[in-house]
Automatic annotation (TrEMBL):
<dbReference type="GO" id="GO:0008360">
    <property type="term" value="P:regulation of cell shape"/>
</dbReference>
<feature type="transmembrane region" description="Helical">
    <location>
        <begin position="292"/>
        <end position="313"/>
    </location>
</feature>
<dbReference type="GO" id="GO:0009252">
    <property type="term" value="P:peptidoglycan biosynthetic process"/>
</dbReference>
<keyword id="KW-0132">Cell division</keyword>
<feature type="transmembrane region" description="Helical">
    <location>
        <begin position="174"/>
        <end position="207"/>
    </location>
</feature>
<dbReference type="GO" id="GO:0015648">
    <property type="term" value="F:lipid-linked peptidoglycan transporter activity"/>
</dbReference>
<keyword id="KW-1003">Cell membrane</keyword>
<keyword id="KW-0131">Cell cycle</keyword>
<keyword id="KW-0573">Peptidoglycan synthesis</keyword>
<feature type="transmembrane region" description="Helical">
    <location>
        <begin position="78"/>
        <end position="97"/>
    </location>
</feature>
<feature type="transmembrane region" description="Helical">
    <location>
        <begin position="38"/>
        <end position="58"/>
    </location>
</feature>
<protein>
    <recommendedName>
        <fullName>Probable peptidoglycan glycosyltransferase FtsW</fullName>
        <ecNumber>2.4.99.28</ecNumber>
    </recommendedName>
</protein>
<feature type="transmembrane region" description="Helical">
    <location>
        <begin position="104"/>
        <end position="122"/>
    </location>
</feature>
<feature type="transmembrane region" description="Helical">
    <location>
        <begin position="134"/>
        <end position="154"/>
    </location>
</feature>
<keyword id="KW-0812">Transmembrane</keyword>
<comment type="pathway">
    <text>Cell wall biogenesis; peptidoglycan biosynthesis.</text>
</comment>
<keyword id="KW-0328">Glycosyltransferase</keyword>
Length: 402
């Protein structure tokens, strides 16, 4: 073979460099594919679609009676669900959580504090000022406050294990900031439940950051005292607390919601009445698509449907705990713990209220209850969990050069 033939044959073959570039692109794509926490993503999407189904079912009767389309709430919730999932998958999960620096966090905290104070400038809804309304849109700043507080606490407490001598200063900062947030939410917005969840989450993060037990116990004592004062100050809170043990004593008053919720739970049986067949949602059960949507779930899907929903929520919490344990640094660990704690506390309190094991309070069921702000913020929080998982998996996957 002469030199000319050899040259033509060589040029006709694909070059090694092109092959290697293609292989590198494929391997890079595979690594990214493996970085995604699919169990967390799958259960989150499943909860969102389950929530859309139940919001439609719980709100359709009321919408039709009032002259609206049956799918009015479904359409609204669906728009927020699509927007929230886009933010979760394509923005937050790809934004390195290490970029949530203290300077960035302080800006977020400042903006959220202003928004939570600004609610007093808007007309109250159902006796409480909790929303900022601009035209057809509304924003509930207390939903932002929970996760802003988690971000702040994680930033402040991330070095406690390294610098034990400064643990008191760090934990005090977190507790005081949590107190400021909770105070604004409880006093200005009459929302004791969200304020309590915020404080409890902060205490959990303080405890797991490694501070001495005496600090934690002292903060718990102060927190419980604040809770008792807040309950005594408002008589309706004390009435709710005293009536939840036997709501039938005042079935037409403070015990009305819980009584109707218990009727819904017992009428569902094991297999339920069927989707859309709830009777109690027909103006018997107040806030059927919001705080008491779990009662509608059990009435229509029965005990089995309720247990399936609880299993999905437990899976979400389990994945959050697993991500926290596998995080590559204290910041990621505390951030994942705080986010997971909020999901766990809200779910526990909401279901406990519906079954009569906790005083009636306005806590929504994450991803299931109607509410655009809550859904978008919760999905964004899951996006942070997905990013923490991705970063920890990246640190364990060998680089392409090796």
């Amino acid at each position: 073979m002469n030199s000319a033939q050899q040259k033509i044959r060589t040029e006709s073959l694909p070059s090694k460099s092109k092959k290697s570039r293609k292989y590198k692109k494929r391997s890079k794509y595979k690594v990214k594919y493996k970085e995604v926490d699919f169990p967390l993503l799958a259960v989150t999407v499943a909860l969102v679609f389950f929530g859309l189904l139940m919001v439609f079912s719980a709100s359709s009767y009321e919408n039709v009676v009032k002259g609206f389309a049956a799918y009015k709430d479904l359409f609204r919730q669906g728009v927020f669900a699509l927007g929230g999932m886009f933010i979760m998958i394509f923005i937050i999960s790809n934004f390195n959580y290490h970029r949530y620096t203290m300077q960035f966090t302080k800006l977020i905290v400042f903006v959220v504090l202003i928004l939570n104070v600004a609610v007093i400038l808007f007309d109250p809804t159902k006796g409480a000022s909790r929303w900022i309304r601009i035209g057809p849109l509304s924003l509930q700043p207390s939903e932002l406050a929970k996760f802003a507080m988690v971000l702040y606490a994680a930033n402040v407490l991330k070095r406690v294990e390294i610098k034990k001598t400064r643990s008191w200063k760090a934990s005090r900062k977190v507790f005081l900031m949590a107190g400021v947030f909770a105070g604004i939410i409880i006093v200005l917005q009459s929302n004791l439940s969200i304020g309590a969840i915020l404080m409890i989450t902060s205490l959990i993060m303080i405890f797991l950051s490694g501070v001495p037990y005496m600090q934690v116990f002292s903060y718990i004592g102060v927190g419980v005292s604040m809770l008792v004062i807040a309950m005594i100050k408002e008589p309706y809170r004390m009435r709710r607390f005293l009536n939840f043990g036997d709501p039938f004593l005042d079935a037409q008053g403070d015990g009305h919601q819980l009584v109707q919720s218990l009727y819904a739970l017992t009428s569902g049986g094991v297999f339920g009445r069927g989707i859309g067949m709830s009777r109690l949602k027909a103006f018997w059960l107040p806030e059927a698509q919001n705080d008491f949507i779990f009662a509608v779930v059990v009435e229509e899907l029965g005990l089995i449907g309720g247990l399936i929903l609880i299993a999905m929520i437990m899976t979400l919490i389990f994945r959050g705990i697993k991500i926290a344990l596998a995080a590559e640094d204290n910041f990621g660990r505390l951030l994942a713990i705080g986010i997971t704690a909020i999901f766990a506390l809200q779910s526990l309190i909401n279901i406990a209220v519906v079954i009569g094991a906790f005083p009636v309070t306005g806590v929504t069921l994450p991803f299931i209850s109607a509410g655009g702000t809550s859904l978008v913020v919760n999905l964004a929080a899951v996006g942070i969990l997905l990013n923490i998982s991705r970063q920890s998996r990246k640190s364990r996957v060998p680089s392409e050069r090796n």
